[in-house]
Write a structure and sequence with these properties.
By secondary structure, the protein is of the alpha+beta class. The protein has four helices and eleven strands; from the N terminus they run αββββββαβββαβαβ.
Length: about 230
Protein backbone atom coordinates (compact mmCIF):
# COMPACT_ATOMS: atom_id res chain seq x y z
CA UNK A 1 0.00 0.00 0.00
CA UNK A 2 1.16 3.53 -0.73
CA UNK A 3 2.45 4.80 2.66
CA UNK A 4 0.71 8.11 2.00
CA UNK A 5 -2.61 6.24 1.92
CA UNK A 6 -1.85 3.64 4.62
CA UNK A 7 -4.25 2.68 7.39
CA UNK A 8 -2.28 4.73 9.98
CA UNK A 9 -2.72 7.77 7.73
CA UNK A 10 -6.43 7.09 7.37
CA UNK A 11 -6.76 6.66 11.14
CA UNK A 12 -5.14 10.05 11.69
CA UNK A 13 -7.37 11.66 9.06
CA UNK A 14 -10.59 10.24 10.53
CA UNK A 15 -9.59 11.26 14.04
CA UNK A 16 -8.68 14.81 13.05
CA UNK A 17 -11.87 15.28 11.04
CA UNK A 18 -13.91 14.11 14.05
CA UNK A 19 -12.20 16.69 16.28
CA UNK A 20 -12.76 19.50 13.76
CA UNK A 21 -16.44 18.56 13.50
CA UNK A 22 -16.82 18.45 17.30
CA UNK A 23 -15.28 21.88 17.78
CA UNK A 24 -17.51 23.34 15.08
CA UNK A 25 -20.62 21.80 16.66
CA UNK A 26 -19.62 23.42 19.96
CA UNK A 27 -19.81 26.74 18.09
CA UNK A 28 -23.24 25.91 16.68
CA UNK A 29 -21.89 24.95 13.24
CA UNK A 30 -23.05 21.62 11.85
CA UNK A 31 -20.90 20.24 9.05
CA UNK A 32 -21.70 17.53 6.55
CA UNK A 33 -19.78 14.28 6.26
CA UNK A 34 -19.87 12.97 2.71
CA UNK A 35 -18.17 9.93 1.21
CA UNK A 36 -15.01 11.87 0.37
CA UNK A 37 -14.99 15.03 2.51
CA UNK A 38 -16.30 16.74 5.61
CA UNK A 39 -17.49 20.25 4.78
CA UNK A 40 -19.00 23.17 6.68
CA UNK A 41 -21.62 25.38 5.02
CA UNK A 42 -20.67 28.21 7.44
CA UNK A 43 -17.26 29.70 8.08
CA UNK A 44 -15.49 27.77 10.79
CA UNK A 45 -13.69 29.19 13.85
CA UNK A 46 -10.17 30.57 13.56
CA UNK A 47 -7.48 27.92 12.89
CA UNK A 48 -10.04 25.28 11.90
CA UNK A 49 -10.68 24.17 8.30
CA UNK A 50 -13.87 24.67 6.35
CA UNK A 51 -13.37 21.27 4.72
CA UNK A 52 -11.35 18.13 5.38
CA UNK A 53 -10.87 15.51 2.69
CA UNK A 54 -11.46 11.96 3.91
CA UNK A 55 -10.20 9.93 0.94
CA UNK A 56 -7.34 10.39 -1.53
CA UNK A 57 -9.78 10.52 -4.46
CA UNK A 58 -11.61 13.63 -3.22
CA UNK A 59 -11.86 16.28 -5.90
CA UNK A 60 -12.54 20.03 -5.97
CA UNK A 61 -16.23 19.34 -6.69
CA UNK A 62 -16.46 17.61 -3.29
CA UNK A 63 -15.40 20.92 -1.71
CA UNK A 64 -16.31 23.93 -3.81
CA UNK A 65 -19.98 24.79 -3.53
CA UNK A 66 -20.19 23.11 -0.12
CA UNK A 67 -18.27 25.74 1.90
CA UNK A 68 -18.71 29.49 2.35
CA UNK A 69 -16.33 31.37 0.07
CA UNK A 70 -18.07 34.74 0.42
CA UNK A 71 -15.91 35.76 3.38
CA UNK A 72 -12.10 35.79 3.18
CA UNK A 73 -9.96 33.16 4.86
CA UNK A 74 -11.66 29.86 4.00
CA UNK A 75 -9.30 26.89 4.30
CA UNK A 76 -9.32 23.29 3.12
CA UNK A 77 -7.36 20.48 4.77
CA UNK A 78 -6.19 18.32 1.87
CA UNK A 79 -5.56 15.24 3.99
CA UNK A 80 -3.67 13.26 1.35
CA UNK A 81 -1.94 16.18 -0.40
CA UNK A 82 -3.79 15.07 -3.53
CA UNK A 83 -5.88 18.11 -4.51
CA UNK A 84 -5.05 20.96 -6.83
CA UNK A 85 -7.19 23.92 -5.81
CA UNK A 86 -5.21 26.64 -7.55
CA UNK A 87 -7.84 26.89 -10.26
CA UNK A 88 -10.50 27.39 -7.60
CA UNK A 89 -8.81 30.45 -6.11
CA UNK A 90 -6.72 28.78 -3.39
CA UNK A 91 -3.01 28.84 -2.54
CA UNK A 92 -1.09 26.41 -0.34
CA UNK A 93 -0.92 27.81 3.19
CA UNK A 94 1.35 25.12 4.68
CA UNK A 95 2.28 21.45 4.45
CA UNK A 96 2.71 18.92 7.25
CA UNK A 97 2.94 15.20 7.98
CA UNK A 98 0.51 12.90 9.66
CA UNK A 99 2.22 11.08 12.51
CA UNK A 100 1.63 7.68 14.09
CA UNK A 101 3.09 5.96 17.11
CA UNK A 102 2.49 2.54 18.59
CA UNK A 103 0.73 2.50 21.95
CA UNK A 104 3.06 3.96 24.59
CA UNK A 105 4.08 1.79 27.50
CA UNK A 106 2.64 2.46 30.92
CA UNK A 107 4.62 5.02 32.88
CA UNK A 108 4.28 6.88 36.13
CA UNK A 109 2.97 10.38 36.43
CA UNK A 110 1.00 12.01 33.67
CA UNK A 111 -1.30 14.96 33.32
CA UNK A 112 -4.82 15.68 34.50
CA UNK A 113 -8.10 16.26 32.68
CA UNK A 114 -9.45 19.79 32.44
CA UNK A 115 -12.58 19.61 34.55
CA UNK A 116 -14.49 22.90 34.34
CA UNK A 117 -14.95 26.18 32.52
CA UNK A 118 -12.35 28.05 34.59
CA UNK A 119 -9.71 25.40 34.00
CA UNK A 120 -10.49 25.39 30.27
CA UNK A 121 -10.09 29.18 30.09
CA UNK A 122 -6.70 28.91 31.82
CA UNK A 123 -5.71 26.10 29.42
CA UNK A 124 -6.60 28.27 26.41
CA UNK A 125 -4.76 31.32 27.76
CA UNK A 126 -1.62 29.22 28.21
CA UNK A 127 -2.04 27.60 24.77
CA UNK A 128 -2.34 30.98 23.04
CA UNK A 129 -0.01 33.01 25.27
CA UNK A 130 -3.04 35.09 26.22
CA UNK A 131 -4.10 35.92 22.66
CA UNK A 132 -7.18 33.69 22.45
CA UNK A 133 -10.39 33.36 24.44
CA UNK A 134 -13.53 31.40 23.59
CA UNK A 135 -12.12 29.29 20.77
CA UNK A 136 -12.77 26.19 22.89
CA UNK A 137 -16.32 26.50 24.29
CA UNK A 138 -17.05 24.92 27.69
CA UNK A 139 -19.57 22.64 26.00
CA UNK A 140 -16.65 20.63 24.62
CA UNK A 141 -15.93 19.37 28.13
CA UNK A 142 -19.05 17.22 27.99
CA UNK A 143 -18.51 15.80 24.50
CA UNK A 144 -17.70 12.06 24.58
CA UNK A 145 -14.50 11.11 22.82
CA UNK A 146 -12.62 14.37 23.40
CA UNK A 147 -10.67 15.57 26.43
CA UNK A 148 -8.40 18.46 27.35
CA UNK A 149 -5.19 17.39 29.08
CA UNK A 150 -3.22 19.73 31.32
CA UNK A 151 0.03 19.72 33.28
CA UNK A 152 0.37 22.17 36.17
CA UNK A 153 3.28 23.22 38.36
CA UNK A 154 3.29 23.11 42.15
CA UNK A 155 1.49 26.47 42.23
CA UNK A 156 -1.29 25.33 39.93
CA UNK A 157 -0.05 27.26 36.91
CA UNK A 158 -0.48 25.59 33.52
CA UNK A 159 2.82 24.30 32.12
CA UNK A 160 1.63 22.26 29.15
CA UNK A 161 -1.47 20.86 27.54
CA UNK A 162 -3.06 19.05 24.63
CA UNK A 163 -6.37 17.84 23.22
CA UNK A 164 -6.95 14.08 23.13
CA UNK A 165 -9.59 12.62 20.81
CA UNK A 166 -10.50 9.00 21.41
CA UNK A 167 -13.65 8.26 19.46
CA UNK A 168 -12.11 6.51 16.45
CA UNK A 169 -10.14 3.70 18.09
CA UNK A 170 -6.85 5.61 18.36
CA UNK A 171 -5.81 8.56 20.50
CA UNK A 172 -5.46 11.68 18.41
CA UNK A 173 -3.33 14.42 19.94
CA UNK A 174 -3.70 18.00 18.75
CA UNK A 175 -2.91 21.47 20.10
CA UNK A 176 0.05 20.11 22.08
CA UNK A 177 1.95 22.95 23.72
CA UNK A 178 4.53 23.72 26.39
CA UNK A 179 4.59 27.16 27.99
CA UNK A 180 8.41 26.99 28.20
CA UNK A 181 8.73 25.69 24.64
CA UNK A 182 10.02 22.22 25.60
CA UNK A 183 7.94 20.11 23.23
CA UNK A 184 9.93 16.94 23.98
CA UNK A 185 8.99 17.16 27.66
CA UNK A 186 5.38 17.94 26.73
CA UNK A 187 5.21 14.86 24.54
CA UNK A 188 6.67 12.71 27.31
CA UNK A 189 4.03 13.86 29.79
CA UNK A 190 1.25 13.58 27.24
CA UNK A 191 2.22 10.04 26.21
CA UNK A 192 2.43 8.96 29.84
CA UNK A 193 -1.12 10.21 30.26
CA UNK A 194 -2.30 8.35 27.15
CA UNK A 195 -0.71 5.13 28.42
CA UNK A 196 -2.46 5.49 31.76
CA UNK A 197 -5.90 6.57 30.56
CA UNK A 198 -6.19 4.77 27.20
CA UNK A 199 -3.82 1.80 27.41
CA UNK A 200 -3.06 -0.16 24.28
CA UNK A 201 -4.10 2.56 21.83
CA UNK A 202 -1.91 3.91 19.06
CA UNK A 203 -1.40 7.68 18.98
CA UNK A 204 -1.86 9.89 15.90
CA UNK A 205 -1.75 13.55 14.93
CA UNK A 206 0.03 15.87 12.52
CA UNK A 207 3.00 18.18 12.83
CA UNK A 208 5.48 20.18 10.77
CA UNK A 209 8.90 21.78 11.19
CA UNK A 210 10.57 21.52 14.59
CA UNK A 211 7.34 20.17 16.12
CA UNK A 212 7.55 17.24 13.70
CA UNK A 213 11.18 16.69 14.67
CA UNK A 214 10.15 16.63 18.32
CA UNK A 215 7.43 14.06 17.63
CA UNK A 216 9.94 11.85 15.82
CA UNK A 217 12.27 12.00 18.83
CA UNK A 218 9.59 10.47 21.05
CA UNK A 219 8.81 7.61 18.69
CA UNK A 220 6.41 8.90 16.05
CA UNK A 221 6.79 8.13 12.38
CA UNK A 222 5.61 10.37 9.57
CA UNK A 223 3.01 8.33 7.70
CA UNK A 224 1.54 10.66 5.09
CA UNK A 225 1.58 14.18 3.72
CA UNK A 226 -1.16 16.75 4.13
CA UNK A 227 -1.63 20.22 2.74
CA UNK A 228 -3.77 23.14 3.87
CA UNK A 229 -5.12 25.49 1.22
CA UNK A 230 -6.18 29.09 1.79
CA UNK A 231 -8.74 30.86 -0.39
CA UNK A 232 -7.31 33.99 -2.02
CA UNK A 233 -10.66 35.78 -1.98
Amino acid sequence: MDPEHSEPTRQAVRDNAAWCAALCRAHGITGRTGPRAWTSPRRTPLYYPDAVTLTPDASPRDIVGRIDLTAPGATVKDSFAALDLTGEGFDVLFEARWIHRAAPEAAGGGWQLVADEGELAAWERAWSAGRSAGLFPPGLLGVPGHAFLVDRDEHGRVRAGAVASTGTGVVGISNLYAVDGDQDAAWAGCLATVARRWPGRAVVGYESGEDLASARRVGFAGVGALRVWLCRG
